[in-house]
Amino acid sequence: MGRPKKTIQRKPSGIYMALVWVDGKKYSKSLETKDELVATRRAAQAVKELHAQARAIANSAVQSKWDADSPDQIGTVWDIPELPDGSADYANAKPRKVRAADLLDPEQIRPVGWQDLFKEAVSVRKQKKGEDYSRGWYEGVERSIKTCPFGPKEANPQLIRQWIKDMEEKGMGARYREIHCSYLRSLIKVSIPSR
Question: Dihedral of CA 140/182/110/161: which sign?
Fold first, then answer.
């Protein structure tokens, strides 16, 4: 059993937030105050709004960021029954809507490279925080991408261990290796959230 999830939490800046978890997803809203009593009074309204937001997202046809799930990627497949003599009964054929994801391999739907994840992470940061990453972050991520001998789709424990071992053999310290791995891990974490 995990730690209890608090509905009202305080950010490091001192601002209070209302948090709710619906179907394993966290929804949050700023209570726009540093005063605990004011935050407590505002929390009930914020929780109602967050639950309404979660219901709206669950009930709506939210546009997916995946091309294969977009309406223009949905096609029609015809289910054609057979007649007793083995020929096709075209008169009673039934159309069935399918998404590209049902027919194509994952590589055909959305090829992903480190640069794709890099761009996605930057756009997510700008959308969520309204600001860009620091120049140092850009330099660190680009350096990590250049040193990584594999792409995100090929990443597996054996390749990652080998990469770390190669960096160690080149004389790179533990902190340096950790930083490279954490930059790439953050790209994956931000860019490919599990749904």
Answer: positive
176 and 145 share a domain?
Answer: yes
118 and 148 part of one domain: yes
The per-residue pLDDT string of the chain (195 residues; one tens digit each, 9 = 90 and over) reads 456 678 888 988 889 999 888 877 888 888 888 999 998 899 899 999 988 888 877 766 545 555 555 554 556 777 888 888 888 888 888 887 776 666 665 555 555 788 888 888 888 888 888 888 889 989 999 999 998 888 887 788 888 889 889 989 988 888 988 998 889 888 888 876 633
**Residues for the chain: how many in total?**
195
Looking at the structure, tell me whether residues 13 and 80 fall in a common domain.
no
Residue 96 lies in domain: 67-108
**Residue 1 falls inside a structural domain:** no
**2 within some domain:** no
- Residue 138 shares a structural domain with residue 178: yes
CA angle 95, 96, 100 (to 5 degrees): 130
> From the CB of residue 183, how many other CB atoms can be counted at a distance below 10 Å?
21
Q: Which of 169, 190, 175, 181 is nearest to 145 (CA)?
A: 181
Name the helix (H) or strand (E) containing 185.
helix 174-191
- The H or E element that residue 147 is part of is helix 135-147
pTM (global) more than 0.70: no
Say if residue 26 is in the same domain as residue 89: no
